[in-house]
Amino acid sequence: MRSTLGILVLSLALLALLGCCDCEEAAPVEPVEPPTDGVFLHISSGPEEPHRVLMALKMAEIMAADKDVLVYFDIKGIEVVLADADDIAFAEFPSSKAQLATLMELGVPLYACPGCLKAAGKTPDDLAGGIQVANKDAFFDFTDGRILSLDY
């Protein structure tokens, strides 16, 4: 009798558990696209280092095909983005002004360091069209994914 009662209680418990389960299939989960990663290009070299400057600008263009890109000019790099800057040429690279125009057409933000402008005796009014004065929020807001930094 005792074993029959135990089997009955166990059976009822098992049925109760089975009755609580939702046997309907769960709705399929839509895959979530990962956020786009960003590339932060830091250009501190100026016209005296044309290979560095033009390589950085070309990398920005290449990366902009499928990544979020931001280009930041500081130290001597601000000399590249002034309104009266010389057009830098070197080897097989497109010139600096041509590459800056291409990056602007692609919607790549181009920022100059405000402290470096001031140290050089320049103001934001001295920047070429399309070049913005940098602010710290821009460094984090240009992409939702990881940030890769390249320094030139």
N/C terminus separation = 86 Å
Structural class: alpha/beta
Question: What is the element string, with H for helices and E for strands?
Answer: HEHEHEHEHE
Q: Which sequence of strands runs across the widest sheet? A: 4-3-2-1-5
Give a quick precis of the structure.
By secondary structure, this protein is of the alpha/beta class. It has helices spanning 2-20, 50-63, 96-105, 114-119, 136-141; strands at 38-43, 68-73, 110-112, 132-133, 147-151. It has one domain: DsrEFH-like (Hypothetical Protein Ychn, Chain: A, 3-Layer(aba) Sandwich), CATH 3.40.1260.10.
Describe the fold and architecture.
- The protein has a single domain, classed as Hypothetical Protein Ychn, Chain: A, CATH 3.40.1260.10.
- The protein is an alpha/beta fold and 152 residues long.
- The chain has five helices and five strands, in the order H-E-H-E-H-E-H-E-H-E.
- The termini are far apart.
- 36% of the residues lie in helices and 14% in strands.
Compile the SSE list and pairings.
Elements: H1 2-20, E1 38-43, H2 50-63, E2 68-73, H3 96-105, E3 110-112, H4 114-119, E4 132-133, H5 136-141, E5 147-151
Parallel strand pairs: 1-2, 1-5, 2-3, 3-4
Index terms:
152 residues; alpha/beta; Hypothetical Protein Ychn, Chain: A; five-stranded parallel β-sheet; 5 helices; 5 strands; 36% helix; elongated
